[in-house]
Amino acid sequence: MSGSNKIFVAVVGVGGVGKAFLGQLEHLRARMQRQNVLLELVLVRRSKKQYFDNFAPLDISQALQNLDNSGNAAPPFGETVDTLAKAPNKVILVDNTSDQEIAASYPKILSKGISIVTPNKKAFSDTYDLWSQIFASAANGTGGPKCGYVFHESTVGAGLPVISTLKELIETGDEVTKIEGVFSGTMSFLFNSFMPVGGGGGKFSAEVKKAKELGYTEPDPRDDLNGLDVARKLTILARIAGLKVQSPTSFPVESLIPKELESVSSGDEFLEKLPQFDDQMEELKLSAAKEGKVVRFVGSIDAPSQAVRVGLEKFDASHPIAALKGSDNIISFHTKRYGSNALIIQGAGAGGEVTAMGVTGDLLKVVRLLH
Ligand SMILES: NC(=O)C1=CN([C@@H]2O[C@H](COP(=O)(O)OP(=O)(O)OC[C@H]3O[C@@H](n4cnc5c(N)ncnc54)[C@H](OP(=O)(O)O)[C@@H]3O)[C@@H](O)[C@H]2O)C=CC1
Ligand SMILES: N[C@@H](CC=O)C(=O)O
Ligand code: NA
């Protein structure tokens, strides 16, 4: 197989999503090989360790053991990027972390010709300036053919085709007037299980622990409960829709973090103390039940007024949002073309495998663009 048919893959972050991604990479590698494209895993990295053997291909099924047993202390991330930029083949960097510093270096990575696929929301929902720099440095932005490509489907709705759908609506000339729905797998799971239609449900704090165990929450679940994870997703969608949203804190975001726990120092301490506030959530449940309703955590973007909001809302039991199950997201695109019947996307919005699917799908898009 000629060198030009070879593409190097470097994986940073091997938690819930990263592990599932490695499994899917193995499957994709076998498929691509039949099409004469060789995907070679050449680097794996976690927070403190890195395994890299001068671009020698790693056995994907052994990569995690190699990292943990034979990996070296991770060098500064910038050094790793400089090494990857010298690769004899095209490189795709898969960022499966939620690291802000890695996210901030995307423009530099792309301008060195390295492509990026990622579920990390940080870069795309930070300042508008960083957003502009990323797409000014990307071959699928305005950066030119020597730059890398960037795709981030799993930053909204995990593997659900939310970003690709919104882009296609816009690129084919539709006018998006409103985007609304449930954008968090964690929040969906919490309210569906703590406040199900018809009554009952577990303690709120116990459901938060379950959501973490199921791999739905951010590494620190406070990033879900403070509404910021949903605010980041809405910032990303609003920007794709053409709104110059400056940051995920530039519009109203309702937090579910009890005032008394705002200053606790760690996620573990937060989870330990959260049961003390279950009564407050029970009150919320009872007051909605008195009106025959349930509460859900939703978000919306109104394009004409440029209004974005994130928070709790009450719904009748018959509403599709009230009837969601598990970690399901539901996202409605109201557009000129779709008229009074919105285009609706629904399905699991969190979890390792479904999130990795969006990342692997993005990797495939880059592979096709590079060939
Ligand atoms: N889980 C989900 O359902 C979804 C997640 N996402 C996004 O996917 C990303 C990963 O989530 P998830 O897998 O659940 O998170 P995890 O906490 O399970 O895994 C994070 C991984 O990133 C590694 N990591 C953290 N910081 C660094 C760093 N500076 N350098 C190298 N590696 C680092 C961690 O290292 P170590 O192993 O050493 O701790 C770990 O392997 C996040 O951005 C999240 O927002 C998006 C959609 C859905
Ligand atoms: N924590 C997030 C993970 C996916 O983006 C969520 O619960 O939706
Ligand atoms: Na998605």
UniProtKB/TrEMBL annotation:
Pathway in which this enzyme or protein is active: Amino-acid biosynthesis; L-threonine biosynthesis; L-threonine from L-aspartate: step 3/5; Amino-acid biosynthesis; L-methionine biosynthesis via de novo pathway; L-homoserine from L-aspartate: step 3/3
Gene Ontology MF: a single term: homoserine dehydrogenase activity
Entries under SUPFAM superfamilies matching the protein: Glyceraldehyde-3-phosphate dehydrogenase-like, C-terminal domain, NAD(P)-binding Rossmann-fold domains
All residue ranges annotated as the Aspartate/homoserine dehydrogenase NAD-binding domain in the record: 13-139
InterPro entries tied to this protein: Asp/hSer_DH_NAD-bd, Bifunc_Aspkin/hSer_DH, HDH_cat, HDH_CS, HDH_short, NAD(P)-bd_dom_sf
Gene3D superfamilies in the cross-refs: Dihydrodipicolinate Reductase, domain 2 (3.30.360.10), NAD(P)-binding Rossmann-like Domain (3.40.50.720)
Domain of life: Eukaryota
Active site, per annotation: K233 (proton donor)
Binding-site positions, NADPH: T97, K121
Record: residues binding NADP(+): G13, V14, G15, G16, V17, G18
The keyword NAD appears for this protein: no
Reactions this protein catalyses: L-homoserine + NADP(+) = L-aspartate 4-semialdehyde + NADPH + H(+)
Enzyme class: oxidoreductase
Residues at which L-homoserine binds: E218
EC number: 1.1.1.3
Keywords: Amino-acid biosynthesis, Methionine biosynthesis, NADP, Oxidoreductase, Threonine biosynthesis
Keyword Oxidoreductase: yes
GO BP, sorted A to Z: homoserine biosynthetic process; methionine biosynthetic process; threonine biosynthetic process
Pfam hit, one: Homoserine_dh
Cofactor: a metal cation
Stretches assigned to the Homoserine dehydrogenase catalytic domain: 161-364
Summary of the function given for this chain in its UniProt record: Catalyzes the conversion of L-aspartate-beta-semialdehyde (L-Asa) to L-homoserine (L-Hse), the third step in the biosynthesis of amino acids that derive from aspartate (the aspartate family of amino acids), including methioinine and threonine, the latter of which is a precursor to isoleucine; production of homoserine leads to a branch-point in the pathway as it can either be O-phosphorylated for processing to threonine, or O-acylated for processing to methionine.
Similarity section: Belongs to the homoserine dehydrogenase family.
Name of the featured protein: Homoserine dehydrogenase
Organism: Baudoinia panamericana (strain UAMH 10762) (Angels' share fungus)
Lineage, top ranks: Eukaryota, Fungi, Dikarya, Ascomycota, Pezizomycotina
